[in-house]
């Protein structure tokens, strides 16, 4: 009798454990089949904040004032302002500054303060930048704010733009980067006075012969100075819309996990992928190993 009781206890224990395991399996299966919750800005976010006011825009209605840079249907942050002005949503006064190769805001709705902008793409966060507003591509899910920056910041930014244009003219309208640094996990190399050539990697976004930061890597590869690999990402992590190439390997150092190659232009680092950052003629470009 005692033996039967022990057997019965064992059987019941097995049933309970099996039921628990089945329950856990079903719970895991249920969770895996659910649509992930995205706490970030949705891709249909079509807003821009100017000061304290939010304006809506329709990307299908926007043409770029820089057809020398963007393909038809593609546009920059600045083009959104121009479209809002054309619809009478805002009053935008602006002009093109040849010495800086960019459009400059004179006033918005009569406010002549030092207007500048911040932007982040899907999954990102706001960050300071030194990128011409009419060069910064809009993407689905982008969050954009125009605000008043201090005068010294704008003056310093404008000086960088003027220096780039002057360097470009001195080099007979060629982009010659004085210093290029590549600091990998296991190596470090430096190159001087490199003439960067276009590879039209993103000619669905930019016009042919528009040079971006990723052309620096591709040019060094052409010259036999490095070997490299590029990887296309539709999305990653919390960023549901990426649609860019990233440098995934240089020489023997290959991106893994959260570590890989970042880059900056003249010391300015932002989370704008290298294949979307247009170059005029920067003082330096650096690709370096980092972990996020």
Structure description:
The structure is a single chain. The chain has 292 residues and is α+β, with helices and mostly antiparallel strands. The protein folds into 2 domains: 47-153, Ferric Hydroxamate Uptake Protein, Chain A, domain 1, CATH 2.170.130; 172-291, Ferric Hydroxamate Uptake Protein, Chain A, domain 1, CATH 2.170.130. It contains 4 helices and 13 strands. The protein has helices at residues 2-32, 77-86, 151-170, 214-222; strands at 47-50, 53-56, 92-97, 102-108, 115-120, 143-148, 175-183, 188-196, 228-233, 244-250, 253-254, 259-265, 284-291. It has a 4-stranded mixed β-sheet with strand order 2-1-6-5, with helices on one face. Strand 10 and strand 11 form a beta hairpin. The longest helix has 31 residues, at 2-32. The chain is globular.
Labels describing this entry:
single chain, 292 residues, alpha+beta, Ferric Hydroxamate Uptake Protein, Chain A, domain 1, four-stranded mixed β-sheet
SSE blueprint and pairings:
Elements: H1 2-32, E1 47-50, E2 53-56, H2 77-86, E3 92-97, E4 102-108, E5 115-120, E6 143-148, H3 151-170, E7 175-183, E8 188-196, H4 214-222, E9 228-233, E10 244-250, E11 253-254, E12 259-265, E13 284-291
Parallel strand pairs: 1-6, 7-13
Antiparallel strand pairs: 1-2, 3-4, 5-6, 7-8, 9-10, 10-11, 12-13
Number of strands: 13
Tell me the span between the first and last alpha carbons. 65 Å
The major beta sheet can be summarized as: 4 strands, mixed
CATH fold category name of the largest domain = Ferric Hydroxamate Uptake Protein, Chain A, domain 1
Largest beta sheet: what is the strand line-up? 2-1-6-5
Strand content: 25-35%
Oligomer: single chain
Radius of gyration: 26 Å
Count of domain modules:
2
- So, CATH architecture of the largest domain? Beta Complex
Number of helices: 4
What would you call the structural class?
Answer: alpha+beta
